[in-house]
């Protein structure tokens, strides 16, 4: 019986009142909705994996990604938040061990002597002085009999893992936004180059029309229409320059630079839009790849552990303490055995009546868990939606680009043919104006379709969790990068 009593704290030390944790279930799915014209891509070993943006074949984009990873403030904030959570986990773990304190003191005291009045003056006896030296060492420990500390640590660890996933998600979001802004900027370069050529062509058309008007061949209205077309194209050109400037400043902020001094040279006609094939993983794999799903699942685990913390409050807490030291009026004799002192004690505390406060906290913890489960399932469904939507977008935009290319080629031919007929006096200038507007619209629509395909590829890569492999947040890569980040 005595042995059983002695072993009771040891047996209770492994007790936990947190519910057994299992990852919440999600709607089952083993494939994506069929999309006409889509074939699953299987990248070769030499294809980009983690650094997925290299698939676009742009050295400037690669350099910007490196700069953004090192200097982006949103990622730096997420890294600091992760390190904060990691420190909180270490702090929670420290509660498993005793707290040891040490202190020393020197006290000087003096008591005044007695005074008396006699004939001829005042006399007094000598004052009493003393010095006391003390050294003490203490320790206190609260054994985790009912799992409160263990579940607090589990909660902190799951929160730390959620913050690590948030860091990965912040980095993935940064990469996607930077890639989208950069590709859109290059599309703006292409639009500017196309509009510049169009303005030059309209200026030549205005010259020809003016010459024909001066020769009495064409009416003045033809000149007005040519001027209108030219001014409209010039206005579009200035608007596109403004759009490019906005993308440039957005990129500057993403890479942590001052927009006032940041510039990206135009590449003009050198733009060659590359659209990589994106292999789409099965739904079950998406759950392992997407950092936002990983973060949501870890928050569920943290909420589950918190239930155990609140349940443990129904049971008493036990505190053990021990103190020892030396106390002496002489420094030389401070550590003599006769100057030693010590004490050992224990304390048990239990709340007898709280009018339902603990029960309310348990219910609150359970509902917090239910809320996190619902959030996890919603994040998962949204992830499936992202993949399916961008999968459809990739296929449809490819077809649209093909149609827009055909339309642009046909419109350019029609524009050239009709203008030649106008110079020969066969057709009216109104026909030329109509076909010029159609050709310009088709050229701009083709460029937009090309960048839309690129941006859809970026969105699909983000939807599947980034790159062609599982998100690298479980093997410590993100943690090592966060620890290495500037403090």
UniProtKB/TrEMBL annotation:
InterPro entries: MdtP/NodT-like, OMP_efflux. Keywords: Lipoprotein, Membrane, Palmitate, Signal, Transmembrane, Transmembrane beta strand. Its main location: membrane. Residues 1-18 form the signal peptide. Residues 120-129 have a biased composition (Low complexity). It is a lipid-anchor. Coiled coil: none annotated. It is found in: Cell membrane. Residues 24-49, 105-129 are annotated as: Disordered. Belongs to the outer membrane factor (OMF) (TC 1.B.17) family. This is Efflux transporter outer membrane subunit. It comes from Sphingomonas oryzagri. The lineage of its organism: Bacteria, Pseudomonadati, Pseudomonadota, Alphaproteobacteria, Sphingomonadales.
């Amino acid at each position: 019986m005595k042995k059983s009593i002695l072993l009771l704290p040891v047996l209770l030390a492994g007790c936990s009142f947190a519910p057994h944790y299992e990852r919440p279930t999600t709607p089952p799915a083993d494939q994506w909705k069929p999309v006409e014209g889509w074939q699953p891509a299987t990248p070769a070993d030499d294809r980009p994996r983690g650094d997925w943006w290299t698939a676009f074949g742009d050295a400037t984009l690669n350099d910007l990604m490196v700069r953004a990873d090192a200097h982006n403030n949103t990622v730096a904030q997420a890294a600091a938040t992760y390190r904060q959570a990691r420190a909180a986990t270490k702090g929670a773990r420290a509660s498993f061990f005793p707290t040891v304190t040490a202190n020393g003191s020197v006290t000087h005291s003096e008591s005044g002597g007695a005074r008396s009045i006699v004939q001829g003056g005042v006399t007094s006896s000598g004052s009493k002085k003393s010095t006391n030296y003390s050294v003490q060492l203490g320790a206190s420990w609260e054994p985790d009999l009912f799992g409160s500390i263990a579940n607090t640590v589990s909660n902190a660890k799951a929160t730390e893992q959620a913050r690590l996933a948030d860091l990965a998600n912040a980095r993935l979001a940064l990469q996607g936004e930077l890639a989208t802004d950069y590709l859109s900027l290059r599309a703006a370069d292409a639009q500017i180059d196309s509009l510049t050529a169009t303005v030059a062509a309209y200026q030549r058309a205005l010259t020809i029309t003016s010459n024909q008007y001066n020769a009495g061949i064409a009416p003045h209205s033809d000149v007005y229409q040519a001027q209108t077309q030219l001014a409209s194209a010039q206005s579009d050109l200035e608007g596109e320059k403004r759009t490019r400037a906005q993308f440039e400043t957005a990129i500057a902020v993403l890479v942590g630079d001052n927009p006032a001094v940041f510039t990206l040279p135009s590449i003009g006609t050198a733009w060659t839009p590359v659209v990589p094939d994106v292999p789409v993983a099965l739904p079950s794999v998406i759950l392992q790849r997407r950092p936002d799903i990983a973060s949501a699942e870890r928050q569920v685990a943290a909420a589950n552990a918190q239930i155990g913390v609140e349940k443990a409050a129904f049971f008493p807490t036990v505190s053990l303490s021990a103190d020892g030291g030396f106390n002496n009026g002489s420094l030389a004799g401070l550590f003599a055995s006769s100057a030693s002192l010590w004490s050992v004690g224990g304390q048990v505390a239990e709340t007898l009546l709280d009018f339902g406060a603990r029960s309310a906290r348990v219910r609150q913890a359970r509902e917090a868990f239910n809320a996190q489960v619902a959030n996890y399932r919603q994040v998962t469904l949204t992830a499936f939606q992202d993949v399916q939507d961008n999968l459809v977008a990739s296929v449809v935009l490819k077809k649209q680009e093909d149609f827009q290319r055909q339309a642009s080629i046909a419109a350019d031919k029609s524009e050239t043919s009709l203008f030649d007929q106008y110079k020969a006096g066969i057709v009216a200038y109104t026909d030329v104006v109509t076909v010029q507007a159609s050709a310009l619209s088709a050229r701009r629509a083709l460029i937009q379709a090309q960048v839309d395909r690129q941006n859809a590829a970026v969105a699909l890569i983000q939807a599947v969790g980034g790159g062609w492999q599982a998100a690298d947040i479980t093997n410590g890569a993100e943690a090592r990068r966060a620890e290495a980040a500037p403090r």
